[in-house]
Design brief:
Chain lengths: ~270, ~280
C-alpha cells in the first residue's frame, strides 16, 4: 500500500485556515446499517463539511454511535453486520478503500478513555509505528501531545504508564494518539461522557483549536455541548436523520416538531 | 420474631461457619503435612552430593540424583518447546478469531484432552515415538509431557486474552492496525503476564507426572546420552527408589520428592510474582 505522506500540521494550517463554505469532506448517501436482521440506521443522508464540527444528537439507542462507526468502518469488526449505501471521503467511496488506509485518514476517539497499557510516549507513537512511519518519532509525539493540549502536563513523564494519568488526561492522550497519524477526519464518540465539567471544557476548547486541521464529527448526549462546540448539528431518532442544519438554527428554530420536543427536553 | 427461631438461625450459622472453616484449614494442613513429612524423611539426605553426583550402585550408600534433576529440566524444556507454542496459538485463535461451532468443538476437545489420564497419554507417546525407533527416549517423554501442557495453556491463554478489554482492540484498529497487528502489539502484551503465568503453572503441573514417563523417557542411572536416549527424571526416580528394598534409597526418594515439590512451589511463586508485576503496569 502506498503511504500517504505525513502532512505537517503546522504548515498545513496556513494553507487551510479559510476553507470554502461548500467544501464537503464526508458525503453520506442512503446509508442503511444492520445488526443481523435488525436495522439500526435507515436511509441516512448527510454531508459533513470540511474543517467544521458536526454534532450528532438524539436519544440513547437512536443509532448515532452506530452511524459514526460506519464512517471509519469500525462496525466491520462486529460479527454479523451489514452496511448499504455510499460514504464518500473526499469523493472516494470508503468501502472500496483499504480499511487500514481509511482508518489512518479517519481517526476515532471513544467514549471511555482507552489508552494502551504502555507508556505515554508509546501510546502516541503507536499509530505511527503500525503505519510503518520512518523518521523522528520524538518530534511527532511532541507535536501530537501539543495539539492535544497535553504536552505541558506530561513532558517530564513520557516514559510513565498511561494509566497513571487522570481520566481527562487519558482522554486527551487518546486524542493525541489519534492525531499522531494526522487524520483528516476525527470521529468522537461521546468523548466527554466519562469526564467532569472542567475536563469537558478543556476537550471542547481543544476541538475548537483542532478545527483548523481536522474535520470532526462528535456524538454527544449533552445538548449544551452540541450547542457550544459544533457548527452543524444533526438530530437522529430511531435510526433516521430527522433534521440537520447550522447548530444555532437547529437549537433556536427547529423545523421538525420531534427535534423541538427533544431539544426542549420532552423526551430522551 | 420468636426467640427460638433466632436461636436456631444463629446455631445454624455457627455450625456452617465451623464446617467451612475446618475444611479451609484442612486444605492448608494437607500441604504443610506433606511438606513437613518430606522434610522430616528426606531432609538429611539433601546435601550438595544429592545435587551434584550420580546415583551410586546398589549396596553403596550416598550418591545423588544430579542426572534426574537435569533430566527433569530437559524433559520440561522439551515439553515447553512442543506444547507451549501450540497451546498459545490455539488460545489466541479461540479468544480472537474463532467462530461459534468450531470454537465450541475446540474448547470441548481441549477440556477432554485435559481429562485424559496421563498414563493414556504415555501409551500414545509410546506408540508414536518409542515403537517406531524401538527404544525409549527423552524425546518420547517430552512428547508425552508436551501433549499434557497443551490443554492447560490453551484455556489459560484464552481466558487472559478475553480479559483484555475490547476497547483496546478498537483503539488499535481505529489507528489503522490490522487484526493480527492489534493482537501482536496490544492484546498479547496486555495479557502477557497472565499468559506467562498460565504457561509456568502448566509446566509445574506436568513436572511431577510419573506415569507418562515410565514407558517413554524410561529412566537412566547415568547421564543421558542425548535426546534420543532414555533419560532420568525425578518422578520416575522417586517411583523406582520408593518401591526398592533399600532404606538408603527410601531416604533418597523422600529427598527427591522434596526437591520436586520445591521446584513446583518455586515456579508457582514465580508465576504469582510475574502476574503481580504485570498488573501493576
Amino acid at each position: 500500500m502506498a503511504m500517504k505522506p505525513f502532512r505537517d500540521p503546522v504548515h498545513m494550517e496556513k494553507t487551510t485556515t479559510q476553507p470554502t463554505e461548500q467544501s464537503i469532506r464526508l458525503d453520506i448517501t442512503d446509508l442503511n446499517f444492520f445488526y443481523g436482521p435488525k436495522q439500526a440506521v435507515f436511509g441516512l443522508n448527510l454531508k459533513i463539511p470540511t474543517h467544521k464540527v458536526t454534532a450528532l444528537i438524539g436519544p440513547s439507542g437512536c443509532g448515532k454511535s452506530t452511524f459514526l462507526r460506519t464512517l471509519n468502518r469500525m462496525n466491520e469488526t462486529i460479527r454479523n453486520t451489514r452496511v448499504e449505501g455510499k460514504v464518500l471521503l473526499d469523493g472516494q467511496e470508503i468501502h472500496a478503500m483499504d480499511v487500514v488506509g481509511l482508518r489512518r485518514r479517519v481517526g476515532m476517539v471513544f467514549q471511555r478513555p482507552n489508552p494502551f497499557p504502555k507508556s505515554i510516549y508509546e501510546n502516541v507513537a503507536y499509530g505511527l509505528r503500525v503505519n510503518g512511519f520512518k523518521g523522528r518519532l520524538d518530534d511527532l509525539v511532541e507535536k501530537s501531545l501539543r495539539r492535544a493540549a497535553l504536552w505541558e502536563e506530561v513532558k517530564d513523564v513520557l516514559k510513565r504508564s498511561a494509566f497513571a494519568l487522570s481520566g481527562g488526561q487519558q482522554q486527551r492522550l487518546c486524542i493525541a494518539r489519534a492525531l499522531a497519524v494526522d487524520p483528516e477526519v476525527l470521529l468522537l464518540d461521546e468523548p466527554c461522557s466519562a469526564l467532569d465539567p472542567v475536563t469537558t471544557a478543556k476537550i471542547e476548547e481543544l476541538m475548537f483549536q483542532l478545527k483548523d486541521s481536522c474535520t470532526m464529527a462528535i456524538v454527544t448526549h449533552n445538548m449544551q455541548q452540541a450547542a457550544r462546540a459544533s457548527d452543524f448539528t444533526a438530530f437522529m431518532l430511531d435510526g433516521k436523520l430527522i433534521e440537520h442544519s447550522v447548530t444555532s438554527k437547529l437549537f433556536t428554530t427547529p423545523t421538525d416538531p420531534r427535534t423541538e420536543a427533544y431539544i426542549t427536553g420532552r423526551f430522551g | 420474631m420468636s426467640e427460638p427461631r433466632i436461636m436456631w438461625r444463629k446455631a445454624v450459622n455457627n455450625v456452617m461457619l465451623t464446617l467451612t472453616g475446618v475444611a479451609a484449614f484442612g486444605v492448608v494442613c494437607v500441604l504443610f503435612l506433606i511438606l513437613g513429612y518430606l522434610i522430616y524423611n528426606g531432609g538429611h539426605s539433601l546435601n550438595l552430593n544429592f545435587f551434584t553426583q550420580l546415583p551410586k550402585p546398589v549396596g553403596e550408600t550416598g550418591g545423588g540424583m544430579a542426572n534426574a534433576i537435569v533430566g527433569s529440566l530437559k524433559l520440561l524444556l522439551l515439553a515447553a518447546v512442543m506444547g507451549l507454542p501450540v497451546g498459545l496459538l490455539a488460545g489466541i485463535y479461540l479468544a480472537e478469531f474463532g467462530g461459534k461451532t468450531f470454537s465450541f468443538i475446540v474448547r470441548y476437545v481441549t477440556d477432554l484432552l485435559n481429562g485424559v489420564p496421563s498414563i493414556v497419554i504415555g501409551i500414545f507417546a509410546y506408540a508414536l515415538v518409542v515403537l517406531p525407533v524401538k527404544h525409549f527416549s527423552a524425546l518420547a517423554g517430552g512428547v508425552a509431557l508436551g501433549i499434557m501442557v497443551i490443554p492447560i495453556t490453551v484455556r489459560s491463554t484464552e481466558e487472559f486474552l478475553r480479559g483484555v478489554p475490547n476497547s483496546m482492540r478498537e483503539a488499535a484498529m481505529a489507528l489503522g492496525a490490522s487484526k493480527w497487528k492489534t493482537i501482536a502489539t496490544v492484546v498479547l502484551p496486555a495479557a502477557s503476564g497472565g499468559i506467562l503465568t498460565g504457561m509456568l503453572l502448566a509446566l509445574a503441573r506436568v513436572a511431577g507426572e510419573t506415569a507418562p514417563l515410565l514407558f517413554t523417557a524410561f529412566g537412566n542411572r547415568y547421564w543421558g546420552q542425548g535426546w534420543g536416549q532414555p533419560i532420568a527424571s525425578l518422578p520416575v526416580m522417586i517411583y523406582t527408589y520408593a518401591i526398592s528394598p533399600y532404606d538408603d534409597w527410601h531416604r533418597q526418594a523422600w529427598a527427591a520428592g522434596l526437591v520436586l515439590l520445591m521446584l513446583v512451589l518455586l515456579s508457582n511463586l514465580g508465576a504469582r510474582f510475574i502476574l503481580a508485576r504485570s498488573k501493576a503496569v
